[in-house]
Amino acid sequence: MTSSSAPSPRPELPASPRHVHLTAIAGVGMASLAGMLRAGGYDVTGSDQAIYPPMSDVLANLGIAVREGYRAENLEPRPDLVIVGNAMSRGNPEVEAMLAAGIPYCSMPEALMRFFMQPRKRAVVVGTHGKTTTSAMLSWVLHETGGDPSFMVGGASRNFPQNFRLGAGPWFVAEGDEYDTAFFDKGPKFLHYDPDALLLNAIEFDHADIYRDLDHVKSAFRTLIARLRPSAVFAACADFPEVRNVVAATGREAVFFGNGPGATWHAEGLRDDGSSTRFTIVGPGVRRDAVLPLPGAMNVANAIGVVTLTSLMNIPLDGVIAALATFRG
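The structure assignment produced for this chain is given below.
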């Protein structure tokens, strides 16, 4: 099947699917979502092209059957829902079989929101870099301060056995990717997450395959910020002029951190010995020493972002500083 015509209106998503199939399952985000679904009690299958370690081992250890290649037969027995990876496109035989059969389908961020994020408060980390480290750091801080968070991050955190977790606490931490969502949804992934707490690290030109120029990138972030609910808390990095410009253009209030103009929180006195970094956290009425067992000013910048956001989330600073001291990267 090689049709490239526009698909028919999407079938209504099932309220309570049992069998969920993921295409392009070996991507980091899709594999993590597959693991979360498996942990949530769903029957999970998947398909991918030329899958190999480490992701093949990760999925096998999760007990998830993966079919090699993209074929119509991968949809037998018929799943209740197909989650379509953004690497998939029209003309792919599995995609065309899914559309022809009228099987309900959605994107990875839709599924993450629908199954796991919707009933929780959502802390989302966005920006053209720094998302993975900062979201892992925020997850660890919430864990160590008794928040028992759920999370899904785009890399392996040394503080957790997996890069996803289903906790009993109120918060779900996620990376908000500015890359497009799926062949049927060309908007950024992060527009699906409706944050209660948003941390914006950086805006620079990236993803030249889907963004024309820097202003095109900025427009995606402007849309995200403009959609924030009034009750949402928002921390933004003052070190990047484009961050300050985008926030100003939306008229949205943010608490800034870093060394740029208007920063409310910043770090002073960095002392990096090659394996850990000591610094002083400076904020409103606050001057506290801290240590991060990682080298480099960039890790400290990420930590100050976490300090800023958690202050807005009413997490006690003592607990945040203690958790930072044991964050392993």
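Interim note for the steering committee: The mean pLDDT is 93. Residues 297-312 form the longest helix (16 residues).
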